[in-house]
Design a protein that fits this description.
Helix content is 76%, strand content 0%. By secondary structure, the chain is mostly helical. It is a multi-pass membrane protein. This is Rhodopsin domain-containing protein.
């Protein structure tokens, strides 16, 4: 009798509402941040650069990831696996496959946007920073292609979608851990790139601390990436995949949207100056194309 009651209680449990709520709210926040970024770049500074367009692409992919995760939720993710029919589970695995690919593409494009943004900020004053960002951009682009290939043939979810692939697909845990580990390493490297150059700038201590703070927002994304890594192993060994996969997917959404918001926050100083502080940005159109540190902190002297 007690076993039957426990079974009924477990069957009634659901993480679906929380999954849908987070999958909608975080992309909405990112969309707002990117919209403010584009407004600032187009209507205040007069020019939209390649890094802005890349963050738009990343936003589209992040929204696509959330849509795929919502589809997973409608097909059983967030409930216990024994309550999900085989047909629903198959459809969920297809949506999971789509979310894995869009998540990783978005993740890499966010990194590429950061690197182009750094080139605009530091390129004219630091040839070293410009070269580092230039070559690392191509490394991330090549890694994105390799990563897409590896993840597309990992056993989860490929073997569940196409059972005959079970003996031909790649072991999921090593592929996912290698992919996530390299993502974390590249995240830390990318977010650390501007810090030495900010340290060498000639400016007031208060301004330097503010610039450091702005560029350090990205490390919050690194923390999310590390937390997400913890859930990777759980998903690859669990017998209740539809229940235990929820946390991993939600941290994935958090990571993407955190990166998009952090990248956009660095561009909003002219908007804040105009509408909150009542100041008029002094950047000309040509100056905005250079995207110097004066867009982050006015009256900055770069040395």
């Amino acid at each position: 009798m007690l076993t039957n009651i426990n079974t009924i209680v477990l069957a009634s449990q659901s993480k679906v509402p929380a999954t849908i709520a987070i999958s909608v709210s975080l992309p909405t926040l990112s969309t707002l941040a990117v919209s403010l970024r584009l407004y600032t770049r187009r209507f205040i500074l007069g020019w939209i650069g390649p890094d802005d367009w890349l963050i738009v692409i990343a936003l589209v992919l992040a929204i696509s990831t959330s849509v795929a995760i919502i589809l997973e939720a409608f097909r059983g993710m967030g409930t216990h696996v024994w309550t999900v029919t085989p047909v629903m589970l198959l459809e969920q695995m297809k949506a999971l496959y789509a979310s894995i690919l869009t998540y990783n593409m978005a993740n890499n494009i966010i990194k590429m946007s950061f690197l182009l943004q750094y080139r605009r900020i530091f390129g004219s004053s630091s040839p070293t920073a410009d070269r580092v960002c230039y070559w690392f951009f191509f490394f991330i682009m090549l890694w994105a292609i390799m990563q897409a290939i590896l993840l597309s043939v990992a056993c989860i979810p490929v073997a569940k979608i196409v059972p005959i692939m079970a003996g031909k697909c790649l072991d999921t845990l090593p592929v996912w851990c290698f992919s996530a580990g390299l993502n974390i390493i590249t995240d830390f490297f990318i977010f650390a790139i501007p810090l030495p150059f900010v340290y060498n700038l000639t400016m007031q201590i208060r301004q330097k601390v503010l610039v450091f703070t702005i560029f350090s927002f990205g490390f919050f994304t690194c923390i999310i990436s590390i937390i997400r890594l913890i859930y990777l192993r759980i998903v690859t060994v669990t017998e209740d995949l539809t229940w235990d996969n929820v946390e991993l997917t939600l941290w994935s959404i958090g990571e993407l949207n955190s990166g998009i918001v952090c990248a956009s926050v660095q561009t909003l100083r002219p908007l804040i100056s105009r509408f909150i502080l009542g100041l008029t940005p002094s950047s000309s159109t040509e100056g905005s194309r250079a995207h110097t540190l004066s867009e982050l902190i006015p009256h900055t002297v770069v040395s």
